[in-house]
Design a protein that fits this description.
The protein has one domain: Divalent-metal-dependent TIM barrel enzymes (TIM Barrel, Alpha-Beta Barrel), CATH 3.20.20. It starts with a strand and ends in a 7-residue tail after the last helix. It is globular and about 55 Å long. Helix 8 runs parallel beside helix 10. Helices cover about 45% and strands about 15% of the residues. The protein has about 325 residues and is of the alpha/beta class. An eight-stranded parallel barrel has the order 1-2-3-4-5-6-7-10, surrounded by five helices. Strands 8-9 form a two-stranded antiparallel ribbon. Helix 4 links the parallel strand 3 and strand 4. It contains eleven helices and ten strands.
């Protein structure tokens, strides 16, 4: 496996500077944001996809530093009920797939998306319970009339370009857990897999180790991001928490740098079980720690992750 970083973290740096930062930290790979929610601070897929000189500059900048590109990421909501937002995110996705093919990158990361409750909706509607029965009606429409037809079409498009899609499970979107990830793959195309981010699973009460075993070879990419659960706030209010991420003291959970939500034993087990299901790709640092600065969080995460990868490569870790 390789250690890497999602370089949108260094959006204030130039592309070359961000690559240098990753290299200096001992990482082997970078994940590049190309549009939609991650933004275009380093690469705008729609701008460069037909610019061979620009593509060559990207490729040469990465290669000259001995790095690889683990994935291009354009996390968005192409199912958004606002047609303008849906189109913008879809166009970013299409351009990102085309750019990935030209760069020789086999994985594009995004979200499944979430529609509204009907064709007349203004905002996405994420269903969280089966009653009243209206919710099940909404969910059936979202999946069968919107999500599955859309992703079947994108699966065919990606197959033509030799690119696979890694859907990041996240509450607020139709794919948010193991069974919804596997459902989309089963019903829309087997080149649709998962960007495995344990941080989004922890706060839902899921066991990432068991999720890896269930997802198996559908895992196309992995994020290294941790979550700290606040037992008192969960005891009072549960895990569904709509308070601002900056309200750390009162939230049920907050995202943390790897090792600051769960101990090394968990992360050792995660790396080992990923290997057992056949994953040989990158584990990419995604820093969203509201307590640590970018530099502190990234430096600690890189040191922690590099240590795990080194131990795993030396055969010092075993999951049982």
């Amino acid at each position: 496996m390789k250690s890497g970083v999602f370089i949108v973290l260094f959006g204030q740096q130039s592309f070359e500077q961000a690559l240098d930062t990753a290299k200096a930290a001992g990482l082997q790979s970078v994940e590049i944001g190309t549009g939609a929610y991650p933004g275009t601070s380093h690469v705008n897929a729609q701008t460069v996809v037909n610019d061979e000189a620009a593509i060559r500059i990207i490729r040469d900048a990465v290669d000259s530093r001995g790095l690889t590109i683990s994935a291009l990421s354009c996390h968005g909501n192409p199912l958004h009920p606002d047609a303008a937002i849906a189109k913008a995110h879809h166009d970013d996705f299409v351009a990102t797939v085309q750019l990935a093919a030209k760069l020789g990158v086999d994985t594009v990361i995004t979200f499944s998306g979430c529609p509204g409750d009907s064709e007349n909706s203004k905002y996405p509607n994420w269903v969280t319970c089966p009653w009243p029965e209206d919710f099940l009606t909404i969910l059936e429409w979202q999946w069968n009339e919107v999500a599955i037809p859309y992703w079947k079409e994108q699966s065919a498009f990606c197959r033509k370009h030799g690119v696979r899609v890694a859907i990041e499970s996240h509450p607020g979107f139709l794919v948010y857990n193991t069974e919804t990830a596997l459902r989309l793959r089963r019903e829309a195309g087997d080149n649709i897999g998962v960007n495995f981010d344990p941080s989004h699973l922890f706060w839902q009460g899921m066991d990432p180790i068991e999720c890896v075993k269930a997802l198996g070879d559908s895992i196309y990419h992995v994020h290294a991001k941790d979550t700290k659960l606040d037992k008192r706030n969960i005891a009072l209010n549960g895990v569904l928490d709509t308070k601002h991420y900056g309200d750390i003291l009162n939230r049920s959970f907050v995202f943390r740098t790897v090792g600051y939500g769960h101990d090394e034993e968990f992360w050792k087990d995660l790396v080992s079980v990923l290997r057992l299901v056949g994953y040989e790709g990158t584990i990419s640092i995604e820093h969203e720690d509201g307590i640590m600065s970018v530099n502190e969080g990234f430096t600690k995460a890189a040191s922690f992750l590099n240590g795990l990868i080194l131990k795993e490569s030396a055969g010092e870790m075993w999951w049982a």
